[in-house]
Amino acid sequence: MAIELDGILQMVAAQYHRTGLLVGRMLTERVFRAESPELGECPVPVPMGLFRPKQDTDPRLIVIDSAGEKWAMGFSAQHNLQRYRITGWHATEAHYPTNRKVTGSKGGDPS
Predict the structure, then answer these.
(1) What is the DSSP secondary structure assignment for residue 76, as one 8-state letter?
(2) CA atoms of 80 and 10, how far apart (whole Å)
(3) Rounded to whole angstroms, what are the CA distances from 17 to 21, 41, 47, 52, 54?
(4) pLDDT for 38-59, tens place per residue?
(5) C-alpha span between 56 and 38 (Å, rounded)
(6) Rounded CA gap, 85 and 56, in Å?
(7) pLDDT digits (tens, 9 = 90+) for 5-39
């Protein structure tokens, strides 16, 4: 799944859930930074939930998976039953494998 945040386009693995609490949704790997007004920054990277877009979903929130299906990015996250809001990419190098291509908002290598 290609997701752009903060002007950075990143390929992120996501898994579709056929059963359980997340049935019909996708959940990305844990590569996002999240914050809470009460708790500050979440101590670990969080995943992003992806949902089927509605007719009035802002087109800037829509991403397309490898099968050509549209998904809307969700910015709510939880850690230890605490609610956070995704604010960008998590900064640790461990969460940016070198085999992924990261580009600027206008394309091309950002370096």
Answers:
(1) E
(2) 26
(3) 9, 27, 14, 13, 19
(4) 999 999 999 999 999 999 999 9
(5) 31
(6) 21
(7) 888 989 999 999 888 888 889 999 999 999 999 99
